[in-house]
């Protein structure tokens, strides 16, 4: 017997979704970091921060609660003006943030601060929270937009953190279970250890299916449709959205999922051909397993997709 919506919503509320008290705790921890960092940036550098936006899965309410296999991270976007997007580099900005963090948290190990491709990351051992500090050069003509740099290849890409949050909110308004479906897909991704399939890509694939097919059917049916879409298309069909401005970028990557806020950005550009094949194979297996679990009404089989913590009642 298939899972009904009440059962899946129970699983989402009690196992997948970040609890309200934890969200409040993380908000407070991030707010303290933002306050201290902003104060130090103003007093010790010439960087002018115009606004700070909490972004990523945390801001979109698609984040999973923390477990040993589901980390919790918050993206914090610092919009910076007074610097040229043609000459400034992410390396200098991230290094500045890194130096300030060490001064702000003198008792933390330097290993807790890491400069990654597009951000400086802070890890709080106590709560297990990771915060990615993302510097963006503000677009003077459109303050919600800005330029984000890649420290490894020196490339820059236009982004809009508030627009990405609105994109998910608009889909949630169209389908009240949209975020539940995204969290289910992310839990499957984590259990299947498909690291190349990033959270943003999952959100966009789920949004594409919603835009194409609507929100009819049960939550279980729509989750299986997500798996089937990956299995049938092989992720070889380019994905774009009504929000995309023309012209769309031209891409030759194995997987093309165009960022709805920047038509020149392929969100899935780092997925290699072998990784694409691995994701498709895992989706095919999960779809077959989900169909069998649905027909048999077997919770043990569902655990093969979602892991041992899967449960639909007390």
Entry summary:
The chain has helices spanning 5-16, 20-44, 56-60, 90-104, 161-174, 178-191, 199-213, 219-233, 273-296, 299-306; strands spanning 48-55, 72-81, 113-115, 120-124, 129-139, 142-149, 156-159. The chain is α+β, with helices and mostly antiparallel strands.
Please explain how this structure is put together.
Helix 6 (178-191) crosses helix 7, helix 8 (219-233) packs antiparallel against helix 9 (273-296) and helix 9 (273-296) packs antiparallel against helix 10 (299-306). The protein has 10 helices and 7 strands. The mean pLDDT is 88. The radius of gyration is 20 Å and the shape is globular. Strands 1, 2, 3, 4, 5, 6 and 7 form a 7-stranded mixed sheet that branches. The protein has helices spanning 5-16, 20-44, 56-60, 90-104, 161-174, 178-191, 199-213, 219-233, 273-296, 299-306, and strands at residues 48-55, 72-81, 113-115, 120-124, 129-139, 142-149, 156-159. It is α+β, with helices and mostly antiparallel strands. The two termini are 19 Å apart.
